[in-house]
Design goal:
Layout: H1 9-19, E1 34-42, H2 45-58, H3 68-84, E2 97-107, E3 118-128, E4 135-145
Antiparallel strand pairs: 1-2, 2-3, 3-4
Subunit structure: Homohexamer.
Family: Belongs to the HutP family.
InterPro entries: Regulatory_HutP, Regulatory_HutP_bacillales, Regulatory_HutP_sf
């Protein structure tokens, strides 16, 4: 199993999340991959999960029926949220709020086709007390096999 240098799925996910919809630094993923982007702000981690899952299903990144793909996406989201929240996936209950841009990327990052698809979720934005000006930058990445 060899990770192809030009197909690092996490790198593409992070670049998409950080770049957002700006044309300043266009990010082009490999043609056979699927991706989507969006924004979410909340004091509730469940709303963050729901926004990302809804976008991924709406854009055809994962199938809306069935468990396996939703489960893989969920674990990638939770890993990314863990990075954003420094291991404590809590927001409102500890008086924190987030304003995030997210990306979801699906594809095979390996040279061998039999390795199958993987999914990456990247989150980039701010976290802090629910008082404007009290936030700081944050980033998180989660990658899971499908």
């Amino acid at each position: 199993m060899v990770l192809a240098i030009d197909r690092r799925i996490g790198k593409y996910a992070i670049l998409l999340a950080m770049n957002g919809d700006q044309e300043e630094f266009p990010v082009v993923t490999p043609s056979q991959w699927k991706s989507c982007m969006g924004k979410v702000g909340s004091m509730d981690s469940q709303k963050v999960v729901a926004a990302i899952e809804t976008a991924a299903k709406r854009e055809g990144i994962i199938k809306s029926d069935g468990y396996r793909e939703t489960h893989a996406l969920y674990h990638a989201i939770m890993d990314a949220l863990s990075g954003v929240t420094r291991g404590q996936v809590q927001l409102g209950s500890v008086m924190r709020t987030v304003g995030l841009r997210f990306s979801v990327v699906r594809g095979n990052p390996y040279e061998e086709l039999e390795e199958g698809d993987w999914i990456a979720v990247a989150l980039y934005g701010t976290i802090g007390a629910p008082v404007r000006g009290s936030e700081h930058e944050t980033i998180g990445l989660g990658i899971n096999h499908i």
